[in-house]
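I am hoping you can look over what I have pasted underneath with an eye to the fold:
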Amino acid sequence: MFSDNKKPRTMNEIGAQPNRISKHTKIKGDIESEADFRIDGKLDGNVKTTGKVVIGKDGYIHGKVECVNADIEGSFNGELLVSDLLSLKSSAVIEGTVSVTKLAVEPGATFNASCTMKGKGGSQNSSSSSFKSSLSSSNRNNEPAKAS
């Protein structure tokens, strides 16, 4: 009656350990997993997971990332496909193309990407558009980003 068996569980809730690429570690290649990832080192390749990807402050990924949620403090260059929430911390540097449902950007983050916003069902909203913006620490006047 009060069971939460109907709620989907993440890999961490059912006992799987998140994967971690530590600082001073460099990996070249592709990674597939159902668990979460934290990258504090450097990855030159692709990541595909049904979990969350976290790029730490010293972390860097060059390649394609496909995940449900992502928190980025470090650097990313490539194609980023996030089916739910992408959260960019103030130290984040993003370049490339981004496809996301929800986007949260802290002041100070650098976001130089072509971005496509999808609706809740995963389809692109008719009101969405691709844009290129730069939200960097030099924009301290809280001015809105300019779309081009």
User: Anything to note?
Assistant: The two ends are 53 Å apart (CA to CA). Residues 99 and 116 are 5 Å apart (CA to CA). Confidence is low (pLDDT under 50) at residues 125-144.
